[in-house]
Amino acid sequence: MRERLTNWAGNIEFGTERLHRPRTLDELRKAVAGAGRLRVLGSGHSFNRLADTDGDLVSLADLPRTAEIAADRASVRIDGGMRYGDLAARLGAEGLAVHNMASLPHISVAGAVATATHGSGVRNGNLATAVSGCEILRADGDIVTLDRSSPDLPGAVVGLGALGVVTALTLDVVPAFDLRQYVYDDLPEAAVHEHLDEILSAGYSVSLFTRWTGTGIDQVWLKRSEPRKGDLFGARPADGPRHPVPGMPTASCTEQGGVTGPWHARLPHFRMEFTPSSGEELQSEWHVPRAAALAAIEAVAGLRERVAAVLQVCEIRTIAADGLWLSPNYERDSLALHFTWIADTEAVLPVVADLEEALAPFGARPHWGKIFTTTPSDLRAAYPRFADFAALAGRFDPNGAFRNPWLESLLGV
């Protein structure tokens, strides 16, 4: 009897009959060669059928962990199964850092990069912007190595797993740095309207959390190196630790209260040593131009009651523009509106469709790994270089060994 294999949230049951867990590169090559079609399963944090397959799945979690720091200490080469929390431990021990991290340190680097997953900060690009090189195993067993001298790299980095198996990545690193994390309660609506840009620029990384049950912002999470005292545009300093979802235990959250700590213990919202819950949420996210930030927030506010009825919490963040072909932040500074829903797909999907309609005038681009109903044709139209990406995928994988129905619909093949 086949074991039921699902994503992290449990809303997707994978259609595969076989999950490979190779321990060596040779074993990985054999798995790829022996599969008619194959997809790579990262840490399972996609909420749609991006990682699903009508063939085999392969996990790189059992491959040897590799973190080779370059002689100039400006980059690190890692294996395709590395998680951010594990990478942070290795870099921290060497006095180095990556420029940013997502809310969860438990996610795989290759999976996060392939979907343009991000942290926050008006000057910080998404996590894929740190990639200076990648090594991709093709269906024919060859490994193609790309670096910044290659015109294909901007198309391959946010690759949705369509080109092959990413066996290694080279990431830019910087000297390790410390941050303080402050949380503020009850940011007034007037402050959002009058000082939104100043609030979003008040730290290295800034997140606004709201349940859309009131007119303001419930919490502001501010991560910065400099100490700070007093209110934040009318928001009060929290009188103790907070969880983004009120009422949830705060022990899993990274330390707050302005206590100085290393970058990897402040940039994520959650601690690596705590296993995140699963099966209790769904997620959606849309990216709009930062110039339209306030208008987009107001558009969501117009659906306040519909959204709040199926919402756990909404997080609002900024991401700097980049040149990666399938990045939602391609050539535009962005505001991301992230929604953590209740675990009820039937109730959530109509609200997702309403939000997409409300955000369409701003050219909203959905996060590739979240729940959305945008049509493949509309997705293709949202990316000026999509045709170039489709051609790149066709060149790397001419027989469609790494495709699935989800990708085929997106690529129009």
From TrEMBL:
Query: Where does the chain cross the membrane?
Result: none
Q: What are the alphabetically sorted keywords of the record? A: Oxidoreductase
- Please list which residues make up the signal peptide: none
Q: Cite the InterPro entries for this sequence.
A: ALO_C, FAD-bd_PCMH, FAD-bd_PCMH-like_sf, FAD-bd_PCMH_sub1, FAD-bd_PCMH_sub2, FAD_lactone_oxidase-like, Oxid_FAD_bind_N, Vanillyl_alc_oxidase_C-sub2
Domain FAD-binding PCMH-type positions: 12-176
Q: Which PROSITE patterns match?
A: FAD_PCMH
**Pfam families from the UniProt entry:** ALO, FAD_binding_4
Alphabetized PANTHER family for the sequence: D-ARABINONO-1,4-LACTONE OXIDASE, L-GULONOLACTONE OXIDASE
The protein's name is D-arabinono-1,4-lactone oxidase
List the source organism.
Answer: Actinoplanes sandaracinus
